[in-house]
Amino acid sequence: MTVKECKFLDFRNMSFVEWQPGDGVNVICGQNAQGKTNLLEGLWLFTGGKSFRGSKDAELVKIGSPRARLQCTFEADGREQTADIQIEKRRKITLNGVALSSPTKMTGLFGAVVFSPDHLMMIKGSPDGRRRFLDAALCQVKPGYIKTYSEYMHIVQQRNALLKDWFRFGDDTILEAWNKRMSAAAAEMVVARRDYVARLRAYATEFYAGLSSHKEKFEIDYEPEKGYESLSKDEIAAYWEETIAAARQADVGAGFSTVGPHREDLSVSVAELSARAFGSQGQQRSAVLALKMAEAAVLGEITGERPAILLDDVMSELDVDRQNYLMNHLAGWQVFITACDPSALGRLSKGRVFRMESGNLSET
Ligand SMILES: Nc1ncnc2c1ncn2[C@@H]1O[C@H](COP(=O)(O)OP(=O)(O)O)[C@@H](O)[C@H]1O
Ligand SMILES: [Mg+2]
């Protein structure tokens, strides 16, 4: 997938921006608060997702304007396509002149992967963020996964409701029925996550090696101590049936399901140590980047279209070699990098440089 041309009207701090990015690396530079992140946010909206900053739709419209309009011409599926977004109270998307019933219909048509500094929590924070990364990425590449996920979560909720009022309504026959359903759903979910992590691993380790000039080893594993790698789906279901049954007392005491894939984690290590506990700022940033690039590579492999790579404020805390790798060694990808520090630009060997100033974009 390649972005060919964009027009943004009354979007964030941009009154009107029209630009034709290059097919390779595009660097958008400018001082703080000029609209660099806004530009990436606008591109991201064509994936059909919500703002990666967690903003509400109404906040995207330029203050004082009734609506924002964004248009993007991109090449995907061997032809040129045009998508239009109109944001008033709600977001509406039209693709090649046809209105879509929901923005999420863009999934798989306009592919992008975004890195924003908030994503560092994926490494620094609790397992929750890492599970969210896996589940969101899986939803994009495996159409049936959303059902697997919702079913499992639904079972856990129902089981939790029973546990919460256990001393009034507790019933072991009902609990055992939930245990059985939960184990089967857990096995589906674990197999999907495990297999996805195996696909990510190959790309992530290769990318991290390049980024660190082969100085650091990068490893990811889904719940390594459980040995899922060598188990069949039935064996995983049996494991969970036993484990959930064994947690009966703890679950009744706590009033919720204390074990299950909803508590599991993706382990990420750099140079043999946990990236969360021991990683430097640069290593943690590199680890998130490796996961994001791997996510993009798997998506590209499955859909046959390489997604656009949006890198917001990624340069700070990366050393010269890592900056150089990002700017000059991602051949074959369309990349958008925002940067405040102009010194990095000297290292760009091929690519285009744009400047964002008070919502106005120009090529330098
Ligand atoms: N809806 C909006 N209308 C007008 N200006 C906005 C809107 N949303 C954000 N801005 C302005 O955009 C600027 C921030 O842009 P941003 O892209 O985050 O900057 P940066 O270049 O540092 O990435 C701020 O000055 C903010 O006031
Ligand atoms: Mg910014």
Task: Kindly describe this structure.
By secondary structure, this protein is an alpha/beta fold. The chain has two domains: 2-111 and 309-363, Rossmann fold; 123-276, RecF/RecN/SMC, N-terminal domain (Glutathione S-transferase Yfyf (Class Pi), Chain A, domain 2, Up-down Bundle). The protein is built from eleven helices and 15 strands. Strands 2-1-4-5-6-7 form a six-stranded antiparallel β-sheet. The protein has a six-stranded mixed β-sheet with strand order 8-12-13-3-14-15, sandwiched between helices. Helix 4 packs across helix 6 (172-211) and helix 6 packs across helix 7 (233-246). The protein is globular and about 70 Å long. The chain binds adenosine-5'-diphosphate and magnesium ion. Residues 12-13, 30, 32-38, 59, 61-63, 356 line the site of adenosine-5'-diphosphate.
